[in-house]
Amino acid sequence: MPDAATEASGSVAARWRTTFVASVVVFVAMLLLFRSTVEGMVYTWYNFETYTHGFIILPITIWLIWQKRAHLAAYTPQPTSAFVSLVLLSLGAWTLARLTGVLVVEQLALVGALISAVATLLGWQVAKFLAFPLLFLLFAVPMGEDLVPPMMEFTASFTVGALKLTGIPVYRDGLWFSVPSGNWSVVEACSGVRYLIASVTLGVMYAYITYHTLWKRLLFIALSAIVPIFANGLRAYMIVMIGHLSDMKYAVGVDHLIYGWIFFGFVMFILFWIGSYWQEEHDPPQFVAPPRRLSAGSVDLRVAALSVAVLTAATLTVWGVTRAESVEPQVAVPLQAPAGAGNWTLSQEPTLWTTNHLETAHEIAARYRSAAGEVQLFVALYPRQRQGAEAISDRNRIAEDFLRYAREGRHDVTLGAETVTVNRARAMLRIDGRNVEHRVWQWYRVAGHSLTNRYLGKAREALARIYPGRTDGAWIVITTPSGPLEDEAAERRLAAFASEMVPKLDAAIDRSVGTTD
């Protein structure tokens, strides 16, 4: 095949240069266009240790591609418009995520747009070959926060189960548990999410370098996700045992974290060492025929046209979202606590504590009384939700500090004319020198709909922005005093309050944002 050999040795090198320059220009230009999203990612990398690896994801991606340069030399880049639809889909997802304040989706959409834009210029054949290093860019997105609660629960269950098997008596209350030598709790740092993220990131890189067969790569990646979950449970058990056997002299405080990282490093070494026994070598091909023959001039024209199309779509997306974000909603009337409903009357006394939530000028903190007892009501209303001012956020908490906080799942309750699932919990706080326990119900009201599912709430908000155009969201909490023998009475008190007061509260929210939906 002299023609193929001539093309591979001559014009292909020029095509690679053109494609490489265009890809770098488009990639950098999109980073600049979406710099606010990029700045948000960098801020998280810098301020949260769990995501510090984000700084090296792009350099690693470049290195992974460089490792395969001998293989790439056998391919001929051919730009294709097939991936433009993925670019547009990613830009659409970025728009909705930006307008609804879903930061992780916004960042994922941007990375997806970057990958799709580069794949557009490289063509299907080359993009398929580079799928692993290109998709590796997704690890730059700080994500995994939703895994913290279930992994904390798993770690607590694993540790308590292992302690019982060891013969150590243990009493568990939510994420807190006690052994004869002292008390322990599983906090966010103990969830193992940072170990999981680090392990999967390293696992993907190792699998790409070490294996060529797809099923081996996927198997090793799966193991890099499963092993650290159980290893973290074992780590927590070992720390409790060290503390217990040393009469709480070791494995607490800083020692706790040091032992954790040392153990994680050992586990990863063993995993990679075992994986090295199935290492594969793959010699680069001499030449890979392109799907169709295109002249150098035609390829250059396609690269230029597709680069302009991608950047134009990105520019219009940013321009449109910037205009939409500049429109501030008009609050019709100030949000006020309902005066009362049924047997419940508004008390003039302040609440026992203040909540810790994202800043807003529209909030309620009130106490209500009836013959059944007392209930506190907290509401944070965000007339136009956006990142940093939204109802659905982990930063909306009922208090700054807890002595104890135990989630108790979800429960269907009647809120006026509708039945809604609320998040239930028990909170122990220090108030006026006393330990006070309260039953807690939480839920959201997004664009006129009460709900607890965070994803459904964001979907509601996205749809409401299109029609009829509502952007409001409220975080709602009710609490009532409780105790070891008062759970049923406290639940009935909250249910009675919710049934009688929430319809008035919903009406107050709707009036405040200027709608009667």
Give the topology, please.
Elements: H1 2-9, H2 11-33, H3 35-47, H4 54-67, H5 69-72, H6 84-100, H7 103-122, H8 124-129, H9 131-135, H10 148-166, E1 171-173, E2 176-179, E3 182-185, H11 193-210, H12 214-245, H13 254-275, H14 296-325, E4 340-341, E5 344-347, E6 362-370, E7 373-382, E8 404-415, E9 418-431, E10 434-446, E11 449-451, H15 454-466, E12 473-481, H16 487-512
Antiparallel strand pairs: 1-2, 2-3, 4-5, 5-6, 6-7, 7-12, 8-9, 9-10, 10-11, 10-12
Report what the structure shows.
There is one protein chain. The N and C termini lie far apart (71 Å). Residues 1-9 have low confidence and may be disordered. The protein folds into three domains: 2-143 and 294-325, no CATH class; 146-278, no CATH class; 340-512, Protein Transport Mog1p, Chain A (3-Layer(aba) Sandwich), CATH 3.40.1000. Strands 4, 5, 6, 7, 8, 9, 10, 11 and 12 form a nine-stranded antiparallel β-sheet that branches. The chain has 517 residues and is an alpha+beta fold. The protein has helices at residues 2-9, 11-33, 35-47, 54-67, 69-72, 84-100, 103-122, 124-129, 131-135, 148-166, 193-210, 214-245, 254-275, 296-325, 454-466, 487-512, and strands at 171-173, 176-179, 182-185, 340-341, 344-347, 362-370, 373-382, 404-415, 418-431, 434-446, 449-451, 473-481. Strand 4 (340-341) and strand 5 form a beta hairpin.
